[in-house]
Amino acid sequence: MQVIDELRIDVARALVYEHGWQSWSPTAAYRFGEPPHRPRSERNRFLCYRPDRLPGPDVYWGEGLLAIDPGDGSGIRIYTATDATEAVPSVQVAVVEDRLVVSADGEVECTTDTGFGDISNALARWADGFAAAAGVSAIRRAPTIWCSWYHYFTDVTEADMIENIEAIERLDLPVDVIQLDDGYQAAHGDWLTLTDRFESLQGIADQIKATGRRAGIWIAPFLVFPESELARRHPDWLIGGPDAPVYGGHNWNRDLFALDTTHPHAMEWITEVVTTMHRWGYDFFKMDFVYAAAIPGKRHEDMSPVAAYRLGMQQLREAVGGSYFLGCGAPILPSVGLVDAMRVSPDTEPQYLPNGGDMSQPSVLAAMMTGRARAFQHGRFWVNDPDCLIARPEIEGREEWADHVGRYGGLRGSSDRIADLDEWGLEITRQLLSDSPVDPFVSSEDDG
Question: What whole-number distance in Å separates Cα of residue 109 and Cα of residue 379?
């Protein structure tokens, strides 16, 4: 870390804004002295934070973006990556005696925003310039979706999909895309080999399109299960290679591997997977856990992890033409210009509080906190996805969550079993799916 700035603050009024690495990394503004959110386990650190960095609890830390409001009216300092296509610097703030010392481990631009408003307004003005430099063009309005995840999780069946397709049609819900989530595939890596709960992905797409709606599908293109056919037959396609494949995180009760996007055969294969899905009728892709392509490690080609991530995402997007691209579990700044919509928070969940108090973990509270803190990105970088509305009676804090989706949701999605919605749940679902805003959100004091 090299010192890049020093400043004094009004301790009683100052705020520091930490921006996390990827979709699920906590992002928030803090009063000085307020402890920042940090992972509560090694598993969560790797899966939801930048895996090769471990900021301590006694410093504030942003990945490519950190802002300070000194509280004295002198303007908001913003410390940012000048470019996020090759590398993303970490920015650290430490209290040293009577001043703040700002350090970074790479090239960082420091600007002072003296315009009207709080940190959110300053970040919105910064984001306009960053998006323009990244080549972001007109942002496409998101379709409204129904997603299988938050009722069925990985136990979803073809019969479940058919039941909800028919319910959406019968009730004439304003759903543009019906999206199959995790659970159809035999293993991560073996995406076109189905579990015994499914007969045909093409058949599901055909039934969806018969209602006049579009078919969507979830895939984690850069994650590989160790027991998959892909890992067994092509260990050289993994980051780290056959002798020492790198750890890609732990989820689904197993350690994971990561696909090497610089290996031409690996990319030919995953490109063929998504083009096959597209040929079957899917034109909405939820690209999840894509942080895996940016994990440090030995690759087929000598390329930075960030550049390798962008290479993989660019090739997949080009492969499916005009399909709608939703990123999730994605490095935020390196994704600008690559996706139509981005999950800007951890997952929501039927429970209100995150397990163990870790604000990277699924919960209503964690999703609201980081979703608010990234509201400025909507309509500038992409369409913000706050995660799906879940409104059935057993959802803790469902009214508060619905209010959040209504205010901060650019991509509007429902993820209940339709038959489980009560009168209020069905009405709020219909109401929120009737609009899908694309214009930038108006910043306000509570967005940080």
Answer: 23
